[in-house]
## 1
Amino acid sequence: MSRSTHAVELCALLVDETYGELTSRIFTILLRKGRLPIRLLSKHTLLNARQLRHGLAVLIQQGLVYYNQDSETGTTFYEANSDAAYGLARAGKIIGMAETRFGPAARDVVQKLFLLGNTSVSDLEAAYESKHEQHVNGNAEGSSVIPNGVNEHKASPVSSTGHLHSVLNRLLEVGFIEPVVHSMFLSPADTYNKVERGILQESFGGSTKGAKQKDDLKLRVKNQLQSIRSDREWKGKGIKRPLNGGHVNGVNGTNKRRRLSNGSSTVSSDHLYEDDGTRLEPTLIVHVNYEKCTVALRNEALAAFAKERIGEITSLIYAQGLRLLEAKIPRCRPDSAIDNVVDLPDGPMFTTKELAAALSHNVNPGTGIGKASGDQVNVRKLEKQLDARKPKSKEGEAGGDIDMGDGGSDDEPKVNGNSKLPDNDNDDDDPFADSPKPAKRPKVTFQDRLPASKTSDDRENRVELVKKHLLLLAADDSKFLRKCGNNGFGEWTCDFEFIIQKMQEAEIDAMLLENFGNSGHRLARILRKLGKLEEKKLEEAGKIKKKDVRTKLAEMQMAGLVDIQEVPRDSARTTQRTIFLWFFDQDRAATMVVQNTYKAMSRILQRLDVERRRAHDVLALTRRSDVRDLDPEVYLDVHQLNDFRAIDGKIDKLLCQISRLDGLIGLFREF
Amino acid sequence: MAGRGRGGGPGSGQLKGATWEYDASIKLESKPSDLFPPHPNLKRPAPLTKKERREINNYKNLIDQVHRGPLYTQPTKRDPNAPAKTFGEDQFNRQYGTNRKADMDPFNGVETYSMRYAPKQRDLPKLSDQPFDKSLFPEELWSTLEGTEGQEVRNHINRAMQRKAALLNGKDKDTSLKTRSVLEKIHNAIGDDDNEELDEENKDEEERDDEYDDDEIGDDYNGEQYFDNGEDEMEDGDDGGEEY
């Protein structure tokens, strides 16, 4: 995949930031020049072969470079994997996600995997064992303690080999990490060529004749590629059973199954399941799977969007629903070379019942949907509206006094909070439940329903309540969900493309508003809605003065957001007899946003470097090997500490900006 | 758009509003424009949320670990004030590849006692410190991973050295030219005659290699190695360099 100069610059900077100069020099040349053998690399980088071999070994180990050995000439070609390089910018997010879902042990394991690259299970074990020993000996050199004292974990969260195995197994099941196979080191294009050549030789005798055979060839290549990809996937069930045989009896197995069925929902319950007896093959090599992590990040972004638009509780329920879907979505964007583009009309779906069962019991679906107090609202009318579903949710939104979000405290004892499964009690570490504070005003939620719900079947009521949230999501303008069936109290699916487009629109709108003010924003929206327009029409539609329209449009044209199409009315093509149509191209705007974001990210990385160099004196102190594992407060004097705080704050801000920009890249490029 | 702005003025071939008449009060803007003019619409970013803070800490932690690990190579980048933008490969490459020891800062570069805690600067990743699965790498990198790269060359050189040493020892005992030549012949007969030339070639190669990894230039006083008495040197044999 070719990437723009800004993207290339960014990737090179990211590799430089993470793995140092040698690797980044090689990587930059590979990105710029495409695939190269060592000999040519040496020519372009002016590095000697020994340096190159060392650098390439690191790059391959970290999955940043594809290679392909040409069977005829025996030369090995290396090719940059820019997606993996970009993934480095996301490392923090991915590690954080692993933590929120599976607890500190998973965070530690994922971090180790980032650190070591493609690692076999036995090597991971060894890494942990050596670390334990070091802890016992009190040797702080190699321990994973952060020098800045951000996160004092003296003891490793992974307590035993068994624990490591079960954490790895869980990560494999969710797909955050995947087993490494040989075909992964071939770049997608090489894989395609290889498969195509193989099939050509085998079935077509070297070449194809006519369109029919060509189509046939394409189809076969596609099938083969699909099978190659499915070979890569982690088949937990197939491999686990024979491995389990010795350790685990049926009881433990079922125990595990149950946990897994809602395991994706429960958060940080892992100290209850330190070691579930799963053992992975020691030779299994794993690495972080960026594609799947992107899916999870997309779900997070969608849930955040839902939170913004509707409310916290609804967004939590939505997040859970998406997580159910996540298991069935291996990647965000299907690859046209591999996947069949004609998809089923309904993608993966989940039912209300499943969702209600999987939903964490700290999420109270009874709250979150707004209700005014009884004397303000005609209850009967409202219930009538609730029965008619679609209008209901709109009414719920439009209703004057809406209690969104802050009523949804986690530990609310009032409504339906009873737990039905015992192992679900302490998963309050939800990404969106950062501040579980009780509602400020007296709660009025579902007063009128409460008695009924207590007597009637709890579970069914919960399903009903969850369903209300789902309806609310489906009725939103952004169409968070779509109902596609009636089984299990309703089946739901998510049209990701549509909603991502909506999110992109919202983002571009926000940017327009910021950069071009109210009128620019309005003009762009008019153009988007009505298509290509003449200036006069724009004035009318936008209720803006002619002069203002003109200056604003010119300004936006300079920025590349809107443009003009000329339509001559006669063959003379004179200015007077030409229609000038303004238009606003969403795709173009999106590409521009992506490019600018890449540029901004690389500028930030460069800035980071400059700031670090300026504060080199104090940073060098914190990096000394004798104190780097201590809290800087202990050994720095006041001035140094002030300096350190200042630079640390700056670095934090810059990194935060990078991660926010990365959200944009995700939205516009990858989701 | 084209043509709309033009021709609107009183006379054609003239910019709107601007005339050729002499205006005494006119003042030209001769000041150079600001290098960093204030941004028209600059806002403070929102403060970090808890989640972001956690992610950033994760990231910083990871980067820190990587930098401590064996795979990180230190920047040798020259002039930090040089413009970040480069045009073309030549310029890009020129900014690196400097010899750290040659370009040492005479004011701060001299090692002091307190520097013994400073993290080691590495030009090549230390592959021996990390587990690798050889099968995942192309064959031409295997020797690098195992650290056996250049082993043959080194063996040859070692053998040649031994031979020389033996020769010199022999010279001490028996100085006659004849015995020496005989000895030499015997050695040649036992040893690999045809490797002799190869040795020479390889020596050259090795030497050239060593020029790049500057840790290996053996000299009697090396200020850089003041504190580490060479215990964990790069895995290359240093016997190659010493003789020259």
## 2
Amino acid sequence: MGELAAFIILSAIALVSAVVVVTSGNIVRSALSLVPTFLGVTGLYILLQAEFVAGIQVLIYAGAITVLILFVIMLTEGGTGLRVRQVNEQVAAGLLATVVLAGLLIGVFLRTDWPRGPGALPQYTAEAIGRTFLTTAVLIFEVTSLLLLVSLIGAIIVARRER
Amino acid sequence: MQVGLTHYLIVSALLFCLGLYAVLTRRNAVAILMGIELMLNAANVNLVAFNKYVAPAALSGQVFALVVITLAACEAGVGLALVMAAYRNLETVHVDEINLMKW
């Protein structure tokens, strides 16, 4: 019962602030509304016993990415963008496509009989995740670190002022 | 009533559709990137939920979610650098005004 209440509250926080992100005409407000969205999703991770993913979510999404987005807004728009039209002319078509897709997805999810796997998650997932990253998923780990390096250099080169 | 896999899938579908709506209708490139972040978050919720309910013995879902978070950080960095470069050269961040390669 408590789990259901927590789930409903966290989902409501995430979805309501996501609606603000999507619809607000003030771009700074939508960037700041990303934070409660990410924190609601973090709560969902904790409900799903993924504490390590939840911690990383707070650090990277709610911390780094939001700050980065706010910096770029301040550097480009020079303010909130309230005087500028924020949506293009395909609002009706986009809304229609989104609602149709949402209905389709939810219909499929409700009709499908999902399998239940045996076993249970380990009590402390962080240790098991570390083991997995250094044994079976070591290739993904190394490729991801290489990709981080490449995107670091790429971002610096692209954003650098040319002279 | 127990919280099941379907509940998480529905929440993540709604989150994904909100992100898709932002990508389809926003003019500001930064707002489009925010929509992409929402969609990646929805995918992550799916991965972690499937990990718990369908294959709890293996931790592949959470490992994948961590990789996706890393890639989202990369994508945000490079994407925002591109927005900065476009703003410096074209004086706009509105994607419907960036049409140099369109006839």
## 3
Amino acid sequence: MRILQTLPVVLLILFADSCGKSSQTPVPSSADTSGSPAQPREPEAPLVLPGEASRFVNEGVAEYRQGRYHDAAASFEKARNLVPADPRVSGLLGTSLLQAKRYTPAQAEFRRILTIHPDAVEPRLGLARIGIRLGDYEMATPLFREVLQRDPDNLQALYNLGMLRYRAGDYAESRDLLSRLIILKPDLPDAHYTLGLAYARLNQDAKAEEELHRAVTLAPQNSQAHFQLASLYVRQEKREAAAKEQEIFKRLWDRQAADRAAEGKARELYLAGDYAGAIQEYIRLLEINPQSGRFELGRGQCFLKMGRKDEALAALQKAVALDPKLSDAHFLLAVLYQERGEALQSERERQTFEALEAISENKTGF
Amino acid sequence: MRTRPASRLALACLAPLLAVPARTLLASPATTPASLVFTETAQAAGVTFRHVAGHTPEKYMIETMGSGVCFFDYDNDGYSDLYFVQSGPVPGTTGTRPGSVLYRNDGKGHFADVTAKAGVGAAGYGMGCAAADYDNDGDEDLFVSNFGEDFLYRNNGDGTFTEVGKKAGVSNPMWSTSAAFADYDSDGRLDLFVANYVDFAMDNNKWCGDSIRKIRAYCHPDAYEGVPDSLYHNNGDGTFTEVGRKVGLTERWGKGLGVVFSDLDGDGDPDLYVAKDSVPNALYRNNGDGTFTDVTMDSNTGYSEDGKPEAGMGTDAGDYDGDGRFDLFVVHLSGEVNELYRNLGGLRFEVATYPAGIAAVGVRWVGFGTNFFDYDNDGDLDLYVANGHIIDNIPLFNDSLTYAQRDFLFENLGGGKFKEVGRQHGAYFAREFVGRGMALADMDGDGDLDVAVSNNDQPAVLLRNDGGNAQHYRDAIGAKVAVTAGGKRQVEELRSGTSYLSQNELVLHFGLGSAARVEKVEIRWPSGATQILTNLAADQVVRIREAAGR
């Protein structure tokens, strides 16, 4: 169960505000996701929201953190009504609506703010994300291109356009976009994964293999990369190598499926507010599978709910060490580090979170 | 652009030991006529079946499944009759139980309810059906899967049936879904595969939905454990023995919803493909010695292109790209894509979904019944998908989704590409239903394929194909037929099962484009014997008896 989803960059900063540290909110000028994790951005000029708008935004952020997207949207809408031309508040509203799968009003909000700020990047990204979710790739593709015209190093646009061009059969452009992305963000497993697929379609098997191995190195729990390596080796008639990768894929998939099934009781306790009971259940599950980042994340979320932040930090650090792709854990770590005044660490986690969430539209289900 | 009037050819194949009438319809085009229209005709044709799901506030998972529909010629008069499976009020509740319905076809597309006389009203919470002559007595028998014990109706040959499920050893108590007959061990007797779903029971119903907003919804199959599929070996004395594990069906996830037997590796025996809900699909290679080997991973047919299991519902096999190998198609849940697995030979497949142009169009739809078919007789296989969401209150969870959805008709453009063209061929394709089972037959004998759809808790739909015969156009299950006309070679095989909970008429139908004659028909019988016919006129139904020639 995913508790958190991506919000525009303003979110983390507003967390500080929600913790009562300041009513002034420093907001970056755009979704600047460039730069390496070791080089966080300089803080930018603070944004001053009217007091009531700030309160609604903080309420919305708190609801969003709990996965209450409908409630968050309602709070952000109140704030938006007070500051209708503010692109960041509009972005929060649009993103909450998107996460609540209320695509019609989400689109309307993104389009509204574009009429006021025609060069804005965030609403275009929001609309493009909706396009992917609705299967409207013809809508999403030009929007990502427009984003890249305005922000050539936008990670989300580079990844998603690379993926869309792959799906459209333009493997060369997909390769080019994803290669650019990897220069900017070399530690993004999904970029290497999708680039590997593009190379495979271009019959550049050696490069495909290299990228897929890189994806595995970055995220050893990445069952999909092992799946693709197995497929590649089957195609190359490398039976032994294929069998090895198939075995790893099956083991990882089995474990992930078993973890998902086993987690049911812990999540039920969590949702019922029995955080101590949920922690005990997660400890039991970790005795069965000590390699599950997912269980550590669950434990960390419970500690957070109980206000035991040091224990939450330790659990979340273990979670991302076990599974670097757990975007929710990176998000919560960014918040915790920021609260502790560790800006460098916070920024690193925020960037990792954003990069991982750049592929969130690939997810399947209802 | 048509240069000649409609014409057709049908082949009827009779395998002596099987004594099953098998027809091969040979039909001839170039482009799809704009005037081709599918006309909704259920009421006019006398089909008043309405599926009852028995929806309750408890949202029992079985209420989402809908039911199947089978075309089969129960009275051996040469016309495909129609059977709709009924579900009904969920077990434990009171109320009238309407029962399944058998309609007799008068040969002109008009149907009369003969259920009471035939004795096939099936009183369980029904799921799917499959028909075949399992006892080799010359008439088609009927299997009905249920949530609960399954039924096997033996055809008495006089318009009546006798339920023999328990006696025959196939009254499987698990929640079963799709079924298919095939002679997997080549002993001349049709065996039976039954896909089983999950361990849901009325007394272990879980609460699923949005706990924050307290909105209840139907559970995802992840909420329950899967149960293993069943393969029943036909003992030849009217009984079957379950042999799944013994012969190599080792896959353990369960959750099967669709099944197709098809000779995917071209070695003359039926391989087995099972579409599974949210767990990996399963492909079993028939080893030719009565056993199977799980080749899912090597074949690349178990997962999406990204290595993710998807919510497999209905499935079918067909040679859409004309390379002589049967490809696979599986339809899925919204948020996923309907996967097209292109057969590369040697039981290896590539995911061709995106290159085929069928991915994006399906993202917001939930596919169930599906079939490859040449609706316009232009000589290549098109696709039909019956759509309808699972969750009746889905708009509360996602405002881009609807419960009732329109169906898809994909035209094969050639070059491995498809285009969704439904709304160009009838107002029906703009209407929204909760589609589930779907089957094909030339129910009015006019040389083109018509469609029956069973909708969840809604009236059934019959779509009469008007104009599909403007171009030129076979039962021995497992028979593989190659038709060469106008220099083009097409292959098909006669299958039971396919789609979702449903079965097509046991007739093979070939569109011949503009060709007025068929140069050659090559038949490989289930016995392994081959037969060749030459120089046949188009636009006719031809019945062929094995070894005896035409």
## 4
Amino acid sequence: MSVTDIVFILTAIVTVGSAVVVVVSRSLIYSVFSLLFTFFGVAVLYVFLGADFLAGAQVLIYVGGILVLLLFGVMLTHRLYNLNLTTERFQPIAGTLIAAAVFASISLAAFKTKWKLVGEKELEPTTQQIGEAFLSSYLLPFEIASVLLLVALIGAAMLVRRRTDV
Amino acid sequence: MNLGNLDSLTFFYPELILLGGILLVVISDISLKGLRDRVNPLLTLAALLLALFYTLQTDHGSAMTLFEGMLALDNFALFFKAFMLVAGVLVLLGSLHSEELAAVHQGEFHALLLAVTLGMLLMANSAHLVMLYLSLELVSLTSYIMVGYLRSDRLSNEASMKYILFGAVSTGAMLYGFSLLYGMTGSLDLFAIRDALLAQEVVGFNQVTLMLVVVLTTAGFGFKTAAVPFHFWCPDVYTGAPTPVTAFLSVAPKAAGFAILVRFFLGGLSQPAGEQWGFISGIDWPLVLIVVSVLTMSLGNIAALTQNNLKRMLAYSSIAHAGYILMGAVLLTGTGLKAMLVYLFVYLFMNLGAFFVVTVIFNSEKTFELQDYNGMFRRSPFLAVAMSIFLLSLIGIPPFAGFLGKLYIFGAVIDQGLYWFAVVGALNAAVAAFYYMRIMKHMILENDDRPPTPLQISPLNRALLVLLLVPNILLIVFWSPIDRWTANSITLFGGL
């Protein structure tokens, strides 16, 4: 086993393990903090795939932006402790069966499918390629994404409007 | 023919006009404090009508792709674009005199209506998975906001929250499906995906994986079209949302969902073969969709039987109609696709009409409960007759337009020799007749002790009702333009 393999396995364990903690943890704070490790783990996976820009963006946006926002949200929540996070309808048997079936089918698909592989590639910076794609063949999605953000902004403005103002 | 970014702009006027409209409405909402309530609806209407004008004017010669293969411009897309814009205009007019929306500030509502219409236009002609996802998300995100528009109403908030949660899960499933497809074909372009699948011969375990792709992506499209088993959000969201928004959701994003479904499955996972399509061997996606279709119409109709809230009943009815419409898409024939378009066109007027009557009654009665509709005929004969016509049309009874839709759909199914499928559809239509008739019975036959005070309808609402009634009554006589238009609209890029 090479060093790369060991690093990969460690990253995978950290990513999946912290993701499990996010779901099963009883406290919101624990969930949010273990999400930090999940995000970092995903960033490392991007590095493994040679997507350097994406890894950087992942850390900047998810860790730097979204996670901090989530933390603020949690901090500003009133009843932070003794929260009952489970739903009223709890169906352990049906839930386990469905989850097992989904897990089996997607992991089988991952291992047994003949993927279209590009083979080993030299590691090269991707930032310039992404920038060029955004302004040429991916121009329209790039612009529509900004319309999407505009809509999100309008929605946010609507949510924070004062009641007297309505 | 593939056009680059600059050349494509000539064929992009409708979308550009809507985009300009959004910005103008936002600006006028901030700057014209006194006038904005009058200017904004006019601006929105102007943008929609101008976009409709340019859509109908579009002369693209043969089918082609725009923006480096991101969008496909063909007659199929133009049909849906015109459809969405007409739906947008009707919903805008219907929302003007709605008491539910009158209580809140409406500036954002108009900007959102334009944005969701823009998203749907893009959905209708996406030919690239990235674009497909982005436009779907633009429509979804805007719909979440519109559903939760009544901020002080608990039901509206709950509906919006449920919609977001279901939407997030189904979009996630769909994206996972896309990623599997990308992994197998190495492409995001629908037509390149098709060519790659044809070139490599789908054998072995790849068949199973592709079935997984079909199921996962159906989750995404099924969510938008409210098909069973991805319909759970539908009754709660339709009940909680402001009624004009419900009317809109039940027609336009549903149609956009069908457009994208056809584009994905017929464009990406099938190949044209003579007068029809053949699915790429090894991926029997029509089978999955037939099951979904049967489940959708049966469950929708059966669940609607016991509802006493008009909005909830119409929500289940719209689920059932999604099942009928899906029947046309799974046949892989031009006739089937045409039947689907005819049905959608007719459905636009009958379903919007029914929801609009509910809006008008809510304006003065503040209720959606069926028993409060008692004696409506004595209080407003016009409203009761209008509602009856919309409902008879939804049942599919001649001489109303709904009959035309059912005739085309069942005809196309029988053409393909799928008799059992047609029988299931017909049985469903019979079940549906029961609950639609129940509404009519309450409105016309049952009276309560209250004195029949006449119901007030504003002149605008009355005019809009007449506007919606006209196609329901006259389409059966003047059906040949629709027949020609839809027959012309089944040309898909890279298809028939």
